[in-house]
C-alpha cells in the first residue's frame, strides 16, 4: 500500500494534513460539542486534553504512524478524521477518530470526507478499509452504514476509554472489490445532498 499524506479536496470539503496552524480552528470546533467527548470518544479533545491529543496527532503524522486531516468547509475547520492502523502486509487501513461540529452533521461533510478517504485508500492499494465505532454511539453506527460499509462484529469490552468506561466496539468494513458499487452510491447521495 502507498497512501500519500496529502491534501484531498472536492466541491464540498477540503481535507488538509493536520498542522500546527489548525490548532485554534480545531480546538474551537471540538469545543462546540463538549458532551460528545464525555460520551463516545476513547480520548478527549477538550481543555488540557486537547493539547495532549493534538500534539500526539502531530507526532503521529511526523513519524508516519497516523495521517490526521483537518476537515475544512468554507475556509473553516469543522472537524477531524484520521487514517489509523495502516497494515501494508495485509493491505488493511482503518479510518477513525472522526469528529464534526454539530452544525455540519447529517449533511454533505461526512459522505464527502469518507468518499475522498475511501477512494485514496483503494487507489493506494488497500484491500480492506475498517471503521471501529463505540457500540453505544448509534448515530455514528448509522452514519457508517449509510456510507455503504458492512457491519462485521461486536468486540465485547474492547477497551477502557479516558473516562474509565469499558467500551465495546462495532467493526465495519468496505472491501476494494465492493468499492465501485459503494462509490457509485456515495456519488448519488452527494448529488442529492448538493441539489
What's the gyration radius in Å?
16 Å
Q: How many helical elements?
A: 6
Number of strand segments: 8
Average pLDDT metric: 93
CATH architecture tag: 3-Layer(aba) Sandwich
The topology string of helices and strands comes to EEHHHEEEHEHEEH
Helix amount, in percent? 25-40%
- Strand arrangement within the widest β-sheet reads 1-2-3-4-5-6-8-7
What this model shows, in words?
It is globular, with a radius of gyration of 16 Å. The chain has an eight-stranded mixed beta sheet, with helices on both faces. The chain is 37% helix and 32% strand. By secondary structure, the chain is α+β, with helices and mostly antiparallel strands. It has helices at 23-31, 34-39, 47-63, 109-123, 138-147, 179-194, and strands spanning 8-9, 14-17, 67-73, 76-87, 92-100, 128-134, 150-160, 166-175. A hairpin with a 5-residue loop joins strand 7 (150-160) and strand 8.
Task: For the structure shown, list the relevant keywords.
6 helices; globular; alpha+beta; 195 residues
SSE inventory with pairings:
Elements: E1 8-9, E2 14-17, H1 23-31, H2 34-39, H3 47-63, E3 67-73, E4 76-87, E5 92-100, H4 109-123, E6 128-134, H5 138-147, E7 150-160, E8 166-175, H6 179-194
Parallel strand pairs: 5-6
Antiparallel strand pairs: 1-2, 2-3, 3-4, 4-5, 6-8, 7-8
Concise overview:
The protein is α+β, with helices and mostly antiparallel strands and 195 residues long.
Amino acid at each position: 500500500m502507498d497512501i500519500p499524506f496529502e491534501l484531498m479536496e472536492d466541491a464540498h470539503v477540503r481535507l488538509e494534513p493536520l498542522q500546527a496552524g489548525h490548532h485554534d480552528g480545531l480546538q474551537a470546533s471540538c469545543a462546540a460539542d463538549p458532551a460528545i467527548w464525555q460520551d463516545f470518544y476513547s480520548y478527549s479533545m477538550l481543555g488540557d486534553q486537547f493539547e495532549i491529543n493534538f500534539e500526539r496527532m502531530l507526532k503521529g503524522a511526523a513519524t508516519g504512524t497516523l495521517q490526521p486531516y483537518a476537515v475544512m468547509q468554507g475556509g473553516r475547520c469543522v472537524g477531524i478524521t484520521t487514517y489509523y492502523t495502516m497494515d501494508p502486509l495485509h493491505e488493511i487501513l482503518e479510518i477513525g477518530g472522526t469528529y464534526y461540529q454539530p452544525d455540519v452533521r447529517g449533511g454533505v461533510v461526512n459522505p464527502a470526507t469518507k468518499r475522498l478517504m475511501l477512494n485514496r485508500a483503494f487507489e493506494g492499494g488497500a484491500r480492506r478499509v475498517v471503521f471501529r465505532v463505540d457500540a453505544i454511539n448509534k448515530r455514528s453506527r448509522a452514519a457508517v452504514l449509510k456510507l455503504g460499509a458492512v457491519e462485521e462484529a461486536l468486540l465485547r469490552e474492547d477497551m477502557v476509554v479516558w473516562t474509565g468506561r469499558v467500551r465495546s466496539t462495532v467493526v465495519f468494513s468496505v472491501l476494494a472489490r465492493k468499492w465501485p458499487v459503494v462509490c457509485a452510491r456515495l456519488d448519488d447521495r452527494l448529488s442529492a445532498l448538493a441539489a
